[in-house]
Amino acid sequence: MLSAFHFIRTGRLWLPACLLLWMVLACSCNPAGELIRSAEVSQWEPEIVLLDSLNGIENADPGTILVTGSSSVRLWDSIQSDLFPYRVMKRGYGGAKLTDFNHYAGRIIQPGTYKAILVFVANDITGGEHDRTPGEVLSLFRLLVRQVRERNPGTPLFWIETTPTPSRWNAIDQIHEANERIRSYCDRTPDLNFIPTFDIFTGEDRLPDSIWFRDDMLHLNRSGYRIWSERIRETLMEEGITP
């Protein structure tokens, strides 16, 4: 707190000072803010700078759907044809977690007139020692929703369920709990929608089918993107989001 106030007294630019003070106050007042403060987010700055440059080239119009999130979005080279006839703007980076995605949300999700915003961030629970709990994931998701609502009020927001992948199956119980907490929150919140995908990537035994994944058993292959996009288009239509 002291460093934030000192920053303001030095007479530097007012806007960054206000933003820094807001972040510090947010961290001290809510658990999600604390999670963002502790996140190591600077590693993604080079990729975010590249996304910044795209914002100067591609402008959203009232018919554009923004699809944003982690590497599954970044690697989705066929997104324009897969989601046709929807007009799509893609903004994905690295191994995004909700901690760093919240930090950069103001640069990734520009204020605009999107028809809808779709988010897929799936790296907060991976089976590692630094995983977030399902409760923390929900808190971070709710913080993201608040940020989007402030910048894009009234725009339908869709959360794409974390994919059940073979490489992270050891963490599926925690992943499933986080998914269900977010689904429940979406179900009771206006203009907030959950896109379920567990069933399309698993077989009758409820285990993930390797035919949908690349060799790393984490990222989708061409067939995986095809069925993913079918579910996304289907859900958009069900919620009244037409091309």
Report on this structure.
Helix 8 (134-151) links the parallel strand 3 (116-120) and strand 4. The radius of gyration is 18 Å and the shape is globular. Helix 3 (31-38) packs across helix 8. The protein folds into two domains: 1-37, no CATH class; 39-238, 3-Layer(aba) Sandwich (Rossmann fold), CATH 3.40.50.1110. Strands 2-1-3-4-5 form a five-stranded parallel β-sheet. The termini are far apart. The protein is an alpha/beta fold and 243 residues long. Helices cover 48% and strands 10% of the residues.
Largest sheet, strands/sense/barrel: 5 strands, parallel
CATH class of the largest domain: Alpha Beta
- CATH homologous superfamily assignment of the largest domain: SGNH hydrolase
* Rg, Cα atoms, Å: 18 Å
- The tally of strands reads 5
Q: Which percent range fits the helix content?
A: 40-55%
CATH architecture group name of the largest domain = 3-Layer(aba) Sandwich
- Could you name the CATH topology of the largest domain? Rossmann fold
